[in-house]
Amino acid sequence: MSSAGSPQRSVHDALLVECAWEVANKVGGIYTVIKTKAPVTCQEYGDRYLLIGPLSYKSAPMEVDAIDWEAPPKEALSNTDKALRDTLASMRDRGVKFLYGRWLIEGGPKVLLFDTGSVWNRLDEWKTDLWNLAGIPSPPNDTETNETILLGYLVAWFLGEFSSRERSRAIIAHFHEWQVGLAIPLCRKRHIDVTTIFTTHATLLGRYLCAGSVDFYNNLAYFDVDHEAGKRGIYHRYCIERSSAHCADVFTTVSHITAYESEHLLKRKPDGVLPNGLNVTKFSAMHEFQNLHALSKQKINDFVRGHFYGHYDFDLDNTLYFFTAGRYEYRNKGVDMFIESLARLNYRLQQMGTKMTVVAFIIMPAATHSYTIEALKGQAVTKQLRDTVTEIQNRIGARLFERTARYTGESGTEVPDAASLLSDEDRILLKRRVFALRRNSLPPVTTHNMADDAADPILNQIRRVQLFNRGTDRVKIIFHPEFLNANNPILGLDYEEFVRGCHLGVFPSYYEPWGYTPAECTVMGVPSITTNLSGFGCYMDELIENSDDYGIYIVDRRQKSVEDSVNQLADQMVSFCTKTRRQRINQRNRTERLSDLLDWKKLGLEYAKARQLALRRAYPDSFTDDDFDFESGQVRVPRPMSAPGSPRFLSGMMTPGDLGTLTEEMQSLGTSDYMGAQTWESMMSRNNKNDEEEDAYPFPLVMKKRGGSSSSGLASGQTTPGGVKSAGKQKVLNEEDLQRADEALSHHTNGGVDTNGGVDTNGGVDTNGGVDTNGGVDTNGGTIGR
């Protein structure tokens, strides 16, 4: 906030200082926020952008390229650089150690990392000052709070000295979370001339209360926050967080659900919501990310063979991979609900008699001793078998070539006898490998030896629902208590590779202020299940109509009971399991198309709004009513006009990635029927000629609406959308028409058979004219009402 009597600072080329505990220091999700947002922020601010955090001697050498800030001659520096240099020199001369350099990420932002240990001798002095200044207590043995106090005072010290030297430009100081937020009340009390923004990514008390099995969201208004914080031994931390929120010029959260929580727990209504984004890499062709899915899935297949084959086998071509991942917060992350729903999914798949197998992964770090012998042995013998088969294959190839090359012209010897190509030595070696693969026990549930197996909540829940990976179970479960990396001897994939290879991410969180895991799934084209208690789920639910069709399934954990929520989650997983391969491909296409909603190029605008609001509040005289104001909001994504990979009687528009309706298939629509294939000029000339309504205007990658269409989702025997008019009336299809259409389409293109040569698992025919699971034609010629 601007101090009295200070010269007016320029708000049009302001400096941005962003502070977080996870700057070049990976601990949790805020690291991802700062790192992925940096390129957009650097593009906007350039060298006027500085990141501040604690110095970690373990990670900093790999993350930061140090800069010799004293090397350039002073006359070659700008006023801002001179002020920064003088500030750093002053702090160094008074015993403060730090690392100044560029973060080795895209954008290369400047970073300043303070060594809190270098000022440890000032801790008692600063604790006393904090009590006298703000009445915030600080127990002696809380190491994290001690580090927070030291970093907060160092940041306030830096901002005070820097702002006193750089007086021409406004300085925006943006703080993420309470660990660095202590500098905000210090800046306010000392009248340091900066404008501040505080963003909470989760409230301290909220996380503790949710983990304690209380009905959190329905009782938010009734908690005695001081009592609850004191009872949990976090009152001093809560005081720092609350003072940061109240002293900031602008207070923001990452989602509306966290804003509601903050209003009741921190007693200040947030000024806005800053959703978390990602750096979205769009592929030049739609099939590219589908190819990546196939490649990554093959690597997961290799692991599954080693883990299960030898105990028993199942068809990997008829197997789906589900997963959940994140910090080990058993209840907050919804792992309890996930395992319970898997047990119900297992029962329902068994009752359906399907051959579909689901392998569910739980990727959460926990205390372990080592890998299990069974897991290591399974991967080793499978690799040994694969290597042996490759060797024998090469020898057979050599024999086949040699014998065909020595063909003498004798009749019947053109092609060698197959049995003669496999030598006795090869047979013996192959038998040894196969016998080594055989195992008599059940496949292990976990890949590691747990430090406290009997007390582990996840393993105890698995025991309770009895998901023991039996041969009759349609759902297999694998608990991998370690984050993934490519050097893992058991599951050697990076997290991104693993996600791309899976079919569905399941994140039924009870407390999730944002939720990067389902967002990452969306960007990679992987459908996911989230909840209306997660920031991501609320955000997507607001923007997308019928989000299930786009691969964003949202479980209601706020209005429904636990039992109903578990059943809803199980229903969603059963629904996903009954989709055909074509439907899953179409759904992945739709999911990937949502990635633009999560791109920092769009969501970074929300941060720009917060910074402008902070400047307006600190320097109101620098703005006029004519100054630029940001327009609000994203456009709501409409419901797709057909279910994934399934024809439906719906009027209106369709995306080219979807299958057409039966009527449109019979009419043989061509490429020209898609607006994306037409030029603006041709569209406008047609509009002027036919004087069509607004539906005829160009809309990228969607099919134009046909004139005279008034139907919206009709059952058989009713008027079809865009049907042929006869004698002024729309044509009505009877049962015979539908049977003829079904017969015609069954011979169309691939004969109506799935591209894999298989039949729709629901009993219908897939691809270009199959059964509409929501309201199409029955294989017996009857109709299915929706």
From TrEMBL:
GO terms for cellular component: cytoplasm. Pfam families: Glycogen_syn (PF05693). InterPro entries: Glycogen_synth. GO terms for biological process: glycogen biosynthetic process. Pathway: Glycan biosynthesis; glycogen biosynthesis. SUPFAM superfamilies: UDP-Glycosyltransferase/glycogen phosphorylase. Keywords: Glycogen biosynthesis, Glycosyltransferase, Transferase. Its EC number is 2.4.1.11. Residues 708-717, 749-777 have a biased composition (Low complexity). It comes from the Eukaryota. One of its GO terms (molecular function) is alpha-1,4-glucan glucosyltransferase (UDP-glucose donor) activity. Residues 630-651, 702-729, 747-786 are annotated as: Disordered. The keyword Transferase applies. It catalyses: [(1->4)-alpha-D-glucosyl](n) + UDP-alpha-D-glucose = [(1->4)-alpha-D-glucosyl](n+1) + UDP + H(+). Transfers the glycosyl residue from UDP-Glc to the non-reducing end of alpha-1,4-glucan. Glycogen synthase participates in the glycogen biosynthetic process along with glycogenin and glycogen branching enzyme. Extends the primer composed of a few glucose units formed by glycogenin by adding new glucose units to it. In this context, glycogen synthase transfers the glycosyl residue from UDP-Glc to the non-reducing end of alpha-1,4-glucan. This is Glycogen [starch] synthase. It comes from Microbotryum lychnidis-dioicae (strain p1A1 Lamole / MvSl-1064). The lineage of its organism: Eukaryota, Fungi, Dikarya, Basidiomycota, Pucciniomycotina.
